[in-house]
Amino acid sequence: MAETKKLLRSLNGETLDVPPIWMMRQAGRYLPEYRATREKAGDFLTLCYTPELAAEVTLQPIRRFGFDAAILFADILLIPDALGLEVGFVKGEGPKLSTVTTEAGLAALGDASGIHATLSPVYETLRILKAELPAETALIGFAGAPWTVATYMIAGHGTPDQGPAHKLKAENRALFEALLQRITDATIEYLSAQVEAGAEVIKLFDSWAGSLQGADFADYSLAPIRAITRALHERHPDVPVIGFPRGTSKENYVSFAKTAGVQAVAIDEHLDAAWAAAELQPLTCVQGNLAPGHMVTGGEALDAEVRRIRETFSKGPHIFNLGHGITPDADPENVARMIAALRASA
Ligand code: 1CP
């Protein structure tokens, strides 16, 4: 049977008249129905680990907007939790974790095969979604890329420059590399289980790739991601992977597109779309890259940007998305307006 899900068609290399659209953080605080479910769950981790509630918030933006894909509601910091760190989300402050900065800390972590005990509710969420999603809506599973997850495990919180992770890398490279390896191994098991539970596409978020300079990008963003795509494709050859090396250089985006083993490269809003259409799209499907600020400001500037991005990428496979996650101050009306502008543009 011919593939009918638009996201899968684009990932398979097809150029569509109207590209599929979904949005990073499409389930989130800008939606009143999300805030209500989040309130009911109490804390953020409970929301992630309660399959009925996690499935509910995943479905909310699909019901409201009719996106072409749903992304599993979870967080990249569930892997540190499953490896045995203490992970908490403090309202208004973001995540707080216990840290790994010593050999003893690494030795105390669990290994990859032990993660499923903690993560099995996530797989149940996917099974519920698989049963409840409309037939045309693709289901995306995800994980953080090892470097990005490591930055939180080393610092214990979000950091503007990933300083603590860079410091550990400089002071004890063997320990830093062993930590990346542990995260890589766990991520392979986690994503394989997500696919087995119904995820049709996988996205790897390397949100902090932009702070890796020179050979560090190849060694600590690209290489672990390639290890994950290889192992995943050995087990599940047909599952497409979207990679997101956010904030990296043009040169690095090109080497990522060529060698990461992904079927699409997601680009952030700082990358010039015309450059990406000329240099990346001949290599792979491109996802992006409307600036998230347009979801706050809206208006005709939003319509014009949607048309510009859509036209710029019209000669090859494209997935329409933001360049990064939608922010809590966004107006849901602007999301509807973005989708209408895109679908009217054919
Ligand atoms: O209180 C709340 O409701 C918390 C807000 C929130 C949400 C809605 C967090 C805390 N995580 C999430 C969900 C989430 N996180 C999803 C769900 C699916 C969707 O997109 O709708 C996904 C894919 C993520 C991924 C994630 N978490 C990333 C990578 C993507 C990105 O935005 O760069 C990162 C870096 C995180 C860590 C994280 N989780 C939450 C926050 C506030 C942060 C960032 C912390 C920081 O460094 O400042």
What does this structure look like?
The chain is an alpha/beta fold. The protein has one domain (2-342): TIM Barrel. Helices cover 51% and strands 12% of the residues. The chain has helices at 6-11, 32-41, 44-49, 51-65, 78-82, 103-108, 116-132, 146-155, 163-171, 173-196, 215-235, 250-259, 273-279, 294-297, 299-312, 332-343, and strands at 69-71, 87-90, 94-97, 138-144, 201-206, 241-245, 264-266, 285-290, 318-322. The chain has a seven-stranded parallel sheet. A two-stranded antiparallel ribbon has the order 2-3. Bound molecules: coproporphyrinogen I. Residues 24-29, 38, 44, 71, 73, 75-77, 89, 94-95, 142, 144, 158, 205, 207, 325 line the site of coproporphyrinogen I (1CP).
Compute the number of structural domains: 1
SS field, number of helical segments: 16
Class based on secondary structure composition and strand pairing: alpha/beta
Strand tally, please?
9
Mean pLDDT: 97
Radius of gyration: 19 Å
Strand content: 5-15%
User: What small-molecule ligands were found?
Assistant: coproporphyrinogen I
User: What is the CATH architecture annotation?
Assistant: Alpha-Beta Barrel
Cα separation of the termini:
25 Å
Largest sheet properties: 7 strands, parallel
Estimate the helix proportion, in percent: 40-55%
In one word, what is the shape?
A: globular
CATH class category: Alpha Beta
What is the topology?
Elements: H1 6-11, H2 32-41, H3 44-49, H4 51-65, E1 69-71, H5 78-82, E2 87-90, E3 94-97, H6 103-108, H7 116-132, E4 138-144, H8 146-155, H9 163-171, H10 173-196, E5 201-206, H11 215-235, E6 241-245, H12 250-259, E7 264-266, H13 273-279, E8 285-290, H14 294-297, H15 299-312, E9 318-322, H16 332-343
Parallel strand pairs: 1-4, 4-5, 5-6, 6-7, 7-8, 8-9
Antiparallel strand pairs: 2-3
Helix pairs in contact: 2-4, 4-7, 7-10, 8-9, 8-10, 9-10, 10-11, 15-16
Coproporphyrinogen I binds next to strand 3 and strand 4.
